[in-house]
Design a protein that fits this description.
By secondary structure, the chain is of the alpha/beta class. The chain folds into 2 domains: 202 residues, Metallo-beta-lactamase, Chain A (4-Layer Sandwich); 71 residues, Winged helix-like DNA-binding domain superfamily/Winged helix DNA-binding domain (Arc Repressor Mutant, subunit A), CATH 1.10.10.10. It has a 7-stranded mixed β-sheet with strand order 1-2-3-4-5-6-7, covered by helices on one side. Helix 3 packs antiparallel against helix 4 and helix 5 crosses helix 6. The chain is elongated and about 65 Å long. It starts with 15 loop residues before the first strand and ends with a strand. The mean pLDDT is 95.
Length: 298
C-alpha cells in the first residue's frame, strides 16, 4: 500500500506555535531536500520545559529559541540522534540555560561495540550529559518521557514517548512527509526494520516527527512504512533477476520518478538493503568499490 504522506505542512519560521496544551513547536529555517520545511524543535511543558532536537547551531535560530523560552525554565534537552540538523544547537542552548542534555550517546555509539567506523556527516561533537537506554524514564515537572531505542536511521537513534499525551517524538525514524534514509555503515536496514516493528507493537496515539506534521493514525502509517521497505527489497531482487546488478543501475530503475537530487541518498538505502540481504545469505557481491556487482545466491 502507498504511504499516506501529508506534505501540506506549513508553519512560520522561528516562531513558537502551540500544538496541544503541553506541546509547542518552533520551526527552524533550514528547509531542504532532506529536512523538508525545516527542523521542528518541540517544547514540552509549562513553566519547566524540555526541548527535543534543538536543531542547527545558527545565530538566528538560537536567538529565536531563547525568545521562545523566555520566562520559563529549560530543564531538559533531549536529542533523538546526532545529525547536523538535530543536535548542534544543544551545546549553546545548554550553556545559556544550564539544562542537561540527554541522548543514547555520541554519533556512532550504537556501533561502537562492533568497531564500525561511522560516516563523518554527523555531529561528532555531541556527547550527552546523561546517556539513556531503552526503557529509561526522564521526568520533569509536569512531563515524563519513556526512552524508546530505535536504531536504524542512525545507530544512536532514540525516540521519546510523552506519557501525559501518549505522544511519541520520532526524530527521523518515522516522518509524515517522506521515507527515512538509511545510510551505512552507521545506518542499518535490519535494525531499522526491527525498530519499525517495535513501534508498530506500541499504542501511541500520535507521532511527532522532527520534520513535517504529526502522524495521527500511527498503526496503518507504520504498517505502510514497513510494506514500503519490503517492496523496495522485492524490487532489488527483481533487478538482480533481470541482470540489473549495480547500485547506480538499480537506483535509475527503482527511483526513476524521484527527484535526482535524492538519488545519492537512495543509493545508500539500496546499499543498506543489499547489506541486509547479504547477511541473510540471499545475495552476494562480486568485486569491490564502485565496480561491485551483486547477484542472487542460488
Amino acid at each position: 500500500m502507498a504511504i499516506p504522506f501529508d506534505r501540506s505542512f506549513h508553519a512560520p519560521y522561528e516562531e513558537l506555535q502551540r500544538l496541544t496544551p503541553g506541546i509547542a513547536r518552533l520551526l527552524a529555517e533550514n528547509p531542504g531536500p532532506f529536512t523538508f520545511k525545516g527542523t521542528g524543535v518541540y517544547v514540552v511543558g509549562a513553566q519547566d520545559v524540555a526541548v527535543i532536537d534543538p536543531g542547527p547551531d545558527t545565530p538566528s535560530h538560537l536567538e529565536a529559541l531563547k525568545r521562545a523560552l523566555a520566562g520559563r525554565r529549560l530543564t531538559h534537552i533531549l536529542v533523538t540522534h546526532t545529525h547536523s540538523d538535530h543536535s548542534p544547537a544543544a551545546a549553546p542552548l545548554k550553556a545559556w540555560s544550564g539544562a542537561a542534555t540527554y541522548g543514547f550517546g555520541p554519533h556512532g555509539a550504537g556501533k561502537a561495540e562492533e568497531g564500525v567506523k561511522v560516516e563523518e556527516g554527523g555531529d561528532m561533537a555531541f556527547v550527552p550529559d546523561v546517556r539513556v537506554k531503552d526503557g529509561d524514564v526522564i521526568e520533569g515537572r509536569g512531563f515524563s518521557f519513556e526512552c524508546v531505542y530505535t536504531p536504524g536511521h542512525t545507530s544512536n537513534h532514540m525516540c521519546y514517548a510523552l506519557a501525559e499525551e501518549r505522544a511519541l517524538f520520532t526524530g527521523d525514524h518515522v516522518m509524515g512527509w517522506s521515507t527515512t534514509v538509511v545510510t551505512p555503515p552507521d545506518g542499518d536496514m535490519a535494525a531499522y526494520m526491527a525498530s519499525l516493528r517495535k513501534l508498530l507493537a506500541r499504542d501511541d496515539a500520535v507521532l511527532y516527527p522532527t520534520h513535517g506534521g504529526p502522524v495521527r493514525d500511527p498503526k496503518p502509517f507504520l504498517k505502510a512504512y514497513i510494506d514500503h521497505r519490503l517492496d523496495r527489497e522485492a524490487q532489488i531482487l527483481a533487478c538482480l533477476r533481470d541482470g540489473v546488478a549495480t547500485i547506480p543501475a538499480m537506483v535509475a530503475r527503482m527511483y526513476a520518478d524521484v527527484d535526482k537530487r535524492l538519488h545519492p541518498a537512495a543509493a545508500r538505502s539500496v546499499l543498506a538493503h543489499l547489506i541486509q540481504l547479504e547477511q541473510e545469505g540471499r545475495v552476494t557481491p562480486d568485486g569491490a568499490g564502485a565496480t561491485v556487482r551483486y547477484r542472487l545466491v542460488a
